[in-house]
Specification:
Shape: elongated
Number of domains: 1
Structural class: mainly alpha
Largest sheet: none
Strand content: under 5%
Oligomer: single chain
Radius of gyration: 14 Å
Length: 79
């Protein structure tokens, strides 16, 4: 098994590519996740939690993204 790398192991270009890919993924899936906002199932809750975790990680990397209104209460609870 390969040891995990850290951001310091990445070149600036690799780091930016990773950040951009995460941002694209988050933007692409924001609508789908917002559609699950009122779904009380464990599946929907898991998807929302993973999405919010991605946003927190992207914010730590310097990317800001507007959170869909339907998820704003979830973000406050996760904080």
């Amino acid at each position: 098994m390969t040891a995990p790398i850290t951001t310091t192991d990445l070149t600036p270009g690799e780091f930016e590519a990773l950040r951009a890919a995460g941002a694209w993924y988050a933007k692409y899936h924001a609508v789908r996740i917002a559609e699950l906002a009122d779904d009380p199932s464990a599946y929907a809750e898991h998807k929302r939690e993973k999405f919010l975790t991605l946003l927190v990680a992207l914010r730590k990397l310097g990317f800001e993204m507007a959170l869909p209104d339907a998820l704003r209460s979830d973000e406050r609870q996760a904080a």
